[in-house]
Amino acid sequence: MQELLVFTGHLDVYARAPELIEKFLRVSSSAATVYRVTNHYAEHLEAELQQPTEALEVAEQEVVYAELDGGMIHTDHQWREVKLGRVFRSEDIRESATVGRGGKILHSEYSAHLGSAGEFTEKFRLGVDKYAALDERLVFIRDGAPWMSQWISQEYPCATQILDFYHASEHLGEFASVAITNDEERKRWFAEHKALLLAGRVETVIAAVDRYRSVGGNVKEQAEKLQQYYRSNCEQMRYDEYIKRGLDIGSGAIESAHRTVVHRRMKLSGLRWAHSGAQNVLNLRVASMSNKWQLVVNLIRRPVHPTPVEN
């Protein structure tokens, strides 16, 4: 019964959980009970998730992807960023038989934190460290946040680091919308220079953008901003090389993970989270989506963690 309370609490709003339990078991409960039991075990789960786990076997020539990104949730302190990490093997990727429908990843190890980058990376590295010996076959895909690049370069200097191609091309499109007013000319210019990025010719694109600095005003400002962004990340923009190696160059896996791990429970209509309550549910979501729900079951079975009583 306690496991069901926690499970429903991590799936849906606490007020909805008693209805689900009543339907399935014909047993009455209350939203307050679901809330107390869910948060009680989720608090203890934090320490369990910090225990190292063994690496999965990685086949020869296969790679391990490590992706990280941030997304916002509504808290008592306004909107705050949840940092999410996802680690998975390339052999666990399954393409959809239907064109345009993407695919799925059979197994992932997640980490999530509502707080600082330093606190998040301590959690994220538990899923990454065990694959560090793969060197360049450990592949990070990230957005342009400087702290991500700095941390990866410092901790995993032999790994492959890729700036998500769709972030890179999105910035190019935003610049084109400012610099080129004619629709047809803008579309043609964007398509041409996006193709150059994909071919690994970032310096050519930087030179093309430089020609617009002479316009002055906001166009000059945006041109310099884009140039700086590309120069700061050019070592992680060798897309032609990555494609030859058969690597993904987009961060779709972590973006979809935000929707399934975080948004599906934590961005429901009208929700606003206290910090501790948000982290508790994140712990449960991570355990569930990483196939680690047994950690929750083990906590419930331990007499050292008695269930909170009804008032």
Q: Report the sheet with the most strands, covering strand number, pairing sense and barrel closure.
A: 5 strands, mixed
- Share of helix among residues? 40-55%
How much of the sequence lies in strands comes to: 5-15%
Instruction: Please work out how many helical segments DSSP would assign.
Output: 13
**Strand order, biggest sheet?**
5-2-1-6-7
The beta-strand count equals: 7
Task: Extract low-pLDDT stretches.
Answer: none
Q: Provide the domain count.
A: 3
The helix-and-strand class reads alpha/beta
Structural description of this entry:
This protein starts with a helix and ends in a 10-residue tail after the last helix. It has 3 domains: 2-49 and 290-301, no CATH class; 64-164 and 250-258, no CATH class; 167-235. The longest helix has 19 residues, at 31-49. The protein has helices spanning 2-11, 17-25, 31-49, 117-128, 146-155, 165-179, 183-198, 202-210, 217-233, 239-244, 252-266, 275-289, 294-301; strands spanning 64-75, 78-89, 93-95, 103-105, 109-114, 138-142, 160-163. The strands form 2 sheets. It has a 5-stranded mixed β-sheet with strand order 5-2-1-6-7, sandwiched between helices. Strands 3-4 form a two-stranded antiparallel ribbon. With 311 residues, it is of the alpha/beta class. The protein is globular, with a radius of gyration of 23 Å. The protein is 52% helix and 14% strand.
